[in-house]
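ok posting inputs for the flavin-adenine dinucleotide job
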Amino acid sequence: MPQSIFDDSEGMLAMLRDSVATLASRQPGAASVRQKRAAGADMDKVLWTAMAQAGWTGILIPEDLGGAGLSLTEQAVVSEALGRALISEPVATGAVFASILLARADASVERGRLVAGLVDGSLILAPAWKDGIGRSVSARAADGGYMLSGEKRHVDLAVSATDFLVVAALDGGFGLFSVPAKGVGLSVETAHGVDGAAIGTVRFDQCWLPQAALLARASSEAELLDAAITSARVALAAELAGIASRAVEITIDYTKARVQFGKPIASFQVVQHRLVDMWSDAEFACAAVVNAVETLADGDAQAGRMAVLAAKARAGDAAVSICRRAVHLHGAMGFTDECDIGLYLKRAISLNATLGQPEDLRLEFVNLERAA
Amino acid sequence: MTSATDWNALADEAFREAFRDLVERRLPSELRFIRKQRPLFDEVSVWYHALAEEGWLAPVWPVEHGGMGLTPAKHMIYVEEWGRLGCPRIPDHGLGLIGPLLLEHGTDEQKAYYLPRILTGEHVWCQGYSEPNSGSDLASLRTAAVRDGDAFVVNGQKIWTTLAHCANWIFALVRTSRDEKVRQKGITVLLIDMTTPGVRVRPIANLRGETDFCEVFFDDVRVPVANVVGQIDQGWDVAKSVLGHERIFLGATTRPEIAIERLEKLARARGAFEDPAFRSRYARHRLDLYDLGSAFERFAKVLRDGGELGADVSMLKIFTTELYQRITEETLTLAGEDARYFDDIEAGNDQVDAMNLFLDSRAPAIFGGSNEIQKNILAKAVLRLPS
Ligand SMILES: Cc1cc2nc3c(=O)[nH]c(=O)nc-3n(C[C@H](O)[C@H](O)[C@H](O)COP(=O)(O)OP(=O)(O)OC[C@H]3O[C@@H](n4cnc5c(N)ncnc54)[C@H](O)[C@@H]3O)c2cc1C
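and the output
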């Protein structure tokens, strides 16, 4: 059924897909989501550790820094497979986003420590880049280091984090800071995320950091963040495409097995047409992901950005709307918490809302195109 | 106390005023505009009993049975005000379904026994139609009732039974015989005391994490034959006749109205009305709702003129349930990254239950006959399309 089709002459991508499926068979995603939700947790430590051991937290980290040195192709394949399996760990932010931030930071002992911990799973890094409304985070020089104040929202892994990667205004420009979770002046508040994971709001109240905490600086926020956002969006799009594809399969299976009026409900033409629409939407999502990865690799920055915007929008819309229709085709069963299809819907909504909803991404695409 | 005939004689505005006055006096403010779609009996019993004391609990029941005897026209005002004033839903299967069923098909003894107990709240009812293998295809139901002297012995299972965990009576469709050609035959309406040995209820959590519906199991449950409503084996027609003019309410504007109020609140708080792209999307929803009002009115007029509703009224149900979904989806779009929250989200100094409503909006397109089933009916009964 639908899947992102990349050139895989060596069979390496198929192997990656298989290893995600193997992990999922040992630790089913849906069960993990339910546990996480019941515990009010923001991650599944067992799953994350297993993923780190498999090398999936450092896919995009260059080899000379101790990572796998692979490309967005491999990342997309892993993310798509995780989406299919409903393994809902915050890979796009906690691994991909963090990897790119660190890979582009200045070489330093602190960066070395963070990268090593991300790759082997001993550190949990939580990128925090989105400012609270009217409470943006800023840093100023103080006592031979920096003092941070302000608030970041929508932070994944905020409870489990050992270290935060925080973007803060600094001297008219911006800095990327490494902030230990146990630091004085840092506090975390959480709310329930729809996908079962807790989402953090992180407050910095006169939080002092040593000089070495400054990992990178740039004149604009975009310069610090754009590359990380782009890669994370590709990972999100791939995960959404995986969710979309799997939701179609689950629904085909369900409607073939569910008998009403003496026939499988999948035999009714209305249901068939709807399933065809869903399948086609998932195929479009997968094609968009492949296009994003390949266009980025071609090196034309503008074309790459546009392709990523398109893919994230397409895959997000596809995943959410496929899952909505999937829930409906499950009848009352789809409205229960026990049925996994609802978890797919919720995960799709959450990822779709991360790093830009389709409406915004499409506008950005058109604005870029028309500015060119 | 005003007698019921007077309610119908009252000018519409005066009737509205009387209802508002009642709400002001008797509905505790903490029960107004509550988030829960389906409160349990105990959570809203104050309101239930207050309505009973004031004689406002059963708007369409005849006066001699303790109802208000309202005409459909006045009943529509009642329902409208109920929603507008934020009255909480009360467990209403007794008032809205079993009451009318007994009034039409019940014996005098049944009416005398059950109706007053609904009004006092002693009996709280739930509706046992759907089964695990009989949803859209209700006529395939299999819960078996086998005659044993002056009782039926019931075995089987119902599912999706709303509020079964706070009900003590269930009106169930059971199979008393089998006719291979006409599956609707051999179905009987049975009133079952849920405290009878052999009845077991298991609540089922829904997408919103609430438990509104349940599974109900019957294991050798003895039910007196006197608890049959109408004729044995003729329950299908009994069950189908029940909704009558109330089918119009399946198409009411209430749900999308609630949803658009939330959308507007969030849009105001975020300045979205300044954004032309949002305004244009909002305008579509707003006019969908406005036009639903017009279409509703077209059917309401039929009722006010003393006519009866046809199958075509189902078009309202399809439209309103889909509009409810579209508006709640729009609210999540507007919420941006906040659409990741399960919890209510900030809208200025207020909160909006964006996810709660989005998830809730999945259900009405399924229950009460899914939208596909409604369309099948419209295709056949209204457009007379060939098989
Ligand atoms: C919130 C909620 C509360 C409920 N409360 C009650 C209650 O109190 N008492 C009670 O008895 N029941 C209750 N129900 C059950 C409800 O009546 C059934 O869910 C409904 O009849 C659909 O049946 P099903 O869920 O088995 O879905 P299915 O019949 O399995 O349908 C699954 C999907 O297939 C589609 N489909 C089925 N047949 C066709 C066809 N011929 N052509 C095209 N598409 C088709 C449906 O539209 C649906 O999308 C409740 C349901 C919900 C969601």
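notes: The interface with chain B takes residues 130, 153-154, 191-195, 199, 259-262, 265, 268, 270-271, 324, 327-328, 331-332, 334-338, 342, 345-346, 349-350, 352-355, 357-360, 363 of chain A (CB under 8 Å). The pocket of flavin-adenine dinucleotide is lined by residues A 258, 260-261, 265, 268, 270-271, 328-329, 331-332, 335; B 127-130, 135-136, 160-162, 213, 363, 366-367, 370, 372-373, 376 (CB under 6 Å).
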